[in-house]
Design a protein that fits this description.
Length: 332
């Protein structure tokens, strides 16, 4: 059987973009064998030609403007990993309208423009997939979509930021200082380009807004989330929680209250008999409760280049295989 070629454009060749390029190179044969799809990095949008050269990509793949990618008929799927709200959101809209499938890991752009982006994907009949935007490598949204098909979700609760979980775990388990733990999270590629997004709870609020939008079938904006980060948590509080047999965790929760929903991100004492207290390092764990299925818990690495690229690659394969049929439709 001849493999079908799938042209991939990567917007941004930073921590995640370069991991995606590497994963396509290293996993390409496996994907071809399993799905008959040959993924090819057709283009990358990157300001630094040196960085692209270091990623072992041929010079002709480097584009310095989006228009080149939009007009390239060889590009089927665009992977957006620029980060930040703009120009990422605008670039995704333009890619969808130009007939490209879009895969993104960018929770900020998605959380702030969810309605607009999902509507544009439906109108263009192109896939918009964002598994890596919540829970890193955990197959979370694919499970969420499956549960949503037959349930009303009543509650979502868990740890959705790997950097803060890594910092709090290092402080509790190793006695590491906050600044040292944060620097290590940055070195390992867990943190956002500006780690304020992690430690002040914005990143968790974006992820919660995405989960709540799916839960309620409307665009829930991140500023609807009552948000507190971990910068006010002291080493003494972390140690005292451990002495009580539990742990302080940055907990994100969405609770239905009639037709309304309460959305919160806050450092919370979790007692030792709750499994969230034992989720360490860069791991996330999310409990989804459906009115039929009951509670379902998913856990795995929530941050880092390898797990994130894994989720992105599975979205690329799904976009190439089923296209817009995989999309979430708000209000449905
Ligand atoms: N790190 C992780 O574990 C995870 C990250 N994510 C998400 O993945 C996305 C990417 O994160 P990450 O790779 O860590 O970020 P990086 O900052 O490492 O990479 C972003 C890249 O995009 C480039 N870029 C940004 N804006 C532009 C532009 N306008 N034109 C051309 N290039 C541009 C940057 O170049 P330059 O340096 O020149 O600005 C940089 O190379 C973010 O949305 C993040 O939230 C999601 C899940 C996990
Ligand atoms: N900075 C984020 C990366 C993944 O979404 C995190 O630490 O969770």
């Amino acid at each position: 059987m001849n493999d079908r070629q799938v042209g991939v454009a990567i917007l941004g060749l930073g921590t995640i973009g370069s991991a995606v390029a590497r994963a396509i190179r290293e996993q390409g044969d496996l994907i071809a064998e399993r799905y008959g799809l040959r993924l090819v990095v057709q283009a990358v949008l990157e300001r630094s030609r040196d960085r692209a050269a270091r990623a072992d990509l041929p010079p002709e793949t480097i584009a310095t403007d989006l228009a080149t990618i939009l007009s390239d008929d060889g590009v089927d799927v665009v992977v957006e990993v620029l980060g930040g709200e703009q120009p990422a959101a605008d670039f995704m809209l333009r890619c969808l309208r130009a007939g490209k499938h879009v895969v993104t890991a960018n929770k900020e752009a998605l959380a702030k423009h969810f309605g607009e982006l999902t509507a544009a994907a439906q109108e263009a009949e192109r896939a918009l997939l964002f598994e890596a935007s919540v829970g890193g490598g955990i197959p979370l949204l694919v499970s969420y979509r499956q549960i949503l098909a037959a349930n009303r979700i009543t509650r979502v609760r868990g740890i959705v930021n790997g950097t803060t979980n890594f910092i709090l775990s290092q402080m509790a388990e190793q006695g590491t200082a906050y600044d040292t733990a944060l620097a290590e999270a940055q070195r390992l590629g867990y943190a956002e380009p500006d780690p304020t997004a992690d430690v002040e709870g914005y990143d968790a609020a974006y992820k919660l807004a995405i989960l709540a939008s799916l839960m309620l079938g409307r665009h829930v904006r991140p500023d609807e989330v009552d948000r507190t980060g971990i910068t006010g948590v002291t080493a003494e509080e972390v140690a005292a929680a451990r002495e009580r047999g539990g742990a302080i965790k940055l907990i994100a929760s969405a609770e239905r209250d009639g037709d309304a929903v309460r959305l919160q991100v806050a450092p919370t004492f979790v007692p030792g008999d709750n499994l969230l207290a034992h989720v360490s390092a860069n791991f996330n764990a999310i409990e989804l409760t459906g009115d039929r299925v009951g509670p379902v818990v998913l856990s795995g690495q929530g941050a880092g280049p390898l797990p994130t690229a894994s989720a992105i690659l599975s979205d690329v394969v799904e976009a190439a295989r089923v296209g817009a049929a995989a999309n979430v439709v708000l209000g449905a």
